[in-house]
Specification:
Blueprint lengths: L20 H16 L13 E7 L18 H8 L2 E7 L5 H10 L29 H7 L3 E7 L20 E5 L12 E4 L2 E4 L2 E2 L13 E2 L3 H15 L5 E6 L29 H26 L6 E7 L29 H4 E7 L8 E3 L3 E2 L3 H8 L14 H4 L11 E5 L5 E6 L2 E5 L7 E4 L15 H14 L12 H4 L4
Parallel strand pairs: 1-9, 1-10, 2-12, 2-13, 3-4, 3-9
Antiparallel strand pairs: 2-11, 4-5, 5-6, 7-8, 10-11, 14-15, 15-16, 16-17
Helix pairs in contact: 5-6
Length: 494
């Protein structure tokens, strides 16, 4: 489906005067007063808030202390929740990486999105955004923000077509991985800075069985480099509005490394525990992600930007069973059924924490359902920027500010193309799942049964038929993603 094209040129961006604490407080009160009176919440055109979007990779609903985790240490993300609002019914765009990020960037759910699966090498253009696709980065860029992505992209790769590269989709600066298979490797030989390869200090062993091999010298751990570039970007742009998409690869596994796939320099506080090695690595990766969040928050405080920066923290899908990791060991999906590659709640319901001191209620827990495709219209309204009319998402800014959401949320829809064609839809308390076109519809009451243990399709046939019709209406055919997409096409990149 063709998205609305961006119009106009990018505004000139120069240094802007810093607001005093007193003026920021007054503007905060004015914004909340406007919301209470039913007006559109806006920030002053001279200095809209900075936005940091932190997206973990394969972090489960139950992997954080603030979400009920008992053994993995996440004190700084828990602090983020204590200082902001934690949303308990927030959904990723898909149950795997690339399509989820497409929903995040473009505001479309899987029935209309450009990218609906991990196409990988078999059909790389099916996993790439196109020039006509309008992203949240482009919208904010056109609204005067300086924009950056550090980490994993996965929506366009270098090559003959060079389609979907970050700087062609609204980012002023990019550092990290273009190809998501490349992002499996935490000790790569290179990363990208914009369109230029940056060589790293990691010698890869000779894989030729006749060659004898060479010593592995691993000095550049990619998450550390990605964090460093993010912090440098914030320092460079501290005096003007910025949007940072911090797309960490933690705690994704190196799928090609087998049971040694939880790649991390050390296992930190878990080293002495009587756990399997992959579980130590998985927990250490999450705690390292927590450390990275601390670094970002500390820098905002150091630069006196914390009260003028809206921070989102989430994950692109549910927990994985890769690299030797067992998601059941530390109950990574919490009370939910399923993991990554499932359309049950454990595969698509993910953490969402939002912090903006003085605006977003602190220490609050909110059960309003919303999803990745709502991020674009939400930040567009925040920046007083035009929103595409045909997208699937709606602005959730009133909810973020602790107000009532007057606009009902449209039905939620997902489809997944690995191993056949699967669909799921949610309407209010009801969730329907169909594991194949020939399989019967499953129906769950998420209010009474969030773990999806009781199929109610036979006892509520009217509701089941209604959701089946919604499934049909929510899907629009895509030449890149036919409903019968062969499994081997989609399994080539995870």
């Amino acid at each position: 489906m063709k998205a609305m094209q961006p119009t106009g040129c990018t505004p000139e961006r120069g240094p802007m005067p810093a607001l005093t604490r007193e003026l920021r407080l007054a503007l905060s009160i004015l914004t909340l007063s406007c919301v209470a009176l039913g007006a559109s919440p806006r920030t002053p055109a001279s200095q809209p808030p900075n936005i940091i979007l932190i997206v973990a990779d394969d972090l489960g609903y139950g992997d954080l202390g603030c979400q009920g985790q008992k053994r993995i240490q996440t004190p700084h993300i828990d602090r983020l929740a204590a200082e902001g609002t934690r949303f308990t019914q927030f959904y990723a765009g898909s149950t795997v990486c690339a399509p989820s990020r497409c929903a995040l960037m473009t505001g479309y759910h899987m029935g209309h999105a450009r990218v609906r699966g991990n196409a990988g090498r078999a059909n790389p253009l099916a996993q790439a955004l196109r020039p006509e696709d309008l992203t949240v980065a482009r919208i904010l860029q056109n609204a005067g923000y300086t924009t950056a992505l550090t980490g994993k992209w996965g929506l366009g790769d270098a090559g003959a077509a060079d389609v979907g590269l970050p700087r062609r989709q609204g980012f002023d600066f990019f550092f990290g991985y273009l190809n998501q298979r490349h992002a499996h490797n935490y000790y790569p030989t290179f990363l990208w800075r914009n369109e230029t390869k940056v060589a790293l200090r990691n010698i890869v062993p000779n894989e030729d069985p006749q060659g004898g091999g060479v010593s592995t010298n691993r000095l550049d751990y990619s998450p550390d480099l990605i964090l460093r570039e993010a912090l440098d970007f914030i320092r460079r742009t501290r005096d003007r509005p910025f949007f940072l998409f911090f797309a960490s690869t933690l705690p994704h596994a190196n799928n090609e490394a087998g049971k040694a796939g939880m790649e991390i320099p050390d296992t930190g506080p878990y080293a002495a525990l009587d756990w399997p090695a992959p579980q130590k690595g998985h927990a250490a990766m999450i705690t390292r992600l927590d450390r990275d969040v601390r670094s970002l928050l500390d820098l905002l405080e150091e630069l006196d930007l914390d009260r003028h920066t809206l921070v989102f923290f989430t994950s692109d899908n549910g927990p994985h069973r890769e690299g030797g990791n067992n998601p059941e060991f530390n109950d990574s999906n919490g009370p939910l059924r399923g993991i990554k590659r499932d359309l049950y709640e454990g595969g698509i319901r993910v953490p969402m924490i939002v912090r903006w001191p003085g605006h977003v209620p602190a220490g609050a827990v909110n059960n309003q359902p919303w999803a990745f495709w709502d991020l674009l219209p939400t930040v567009a309204q925040l920046a007083d920027a035009p929103t595409p009319k045909a997208i699937d998402g709606i602005s959730m800014l009133p909810v973020l500010l602790g107000q009532r959401q007057h606009q009902p949320h449209p039905p939620f829809y997902w489809e997944f193309h690995e191993g056949g064609f699967k669909q799921a839809v949610r309407l209010d308390r009801w969730k329907a799942v169909r594991l194949a076109p020939s399989r019967p519809l499953e129906l769950y009451d998420l209010e009474e049964d969030p773990g999806e243990t009781r199929d109610l399709a036979s006892t509520h046939p009217t509701v089941a038929r209604k959701l089946a019709r919604l499934m049909t209406r929510s899907h629009r055919d895509s030449p890149d993603w036919p409903p019968t997409a062969p499994a081997d096409v989609n399994r080539s990149a995870r």
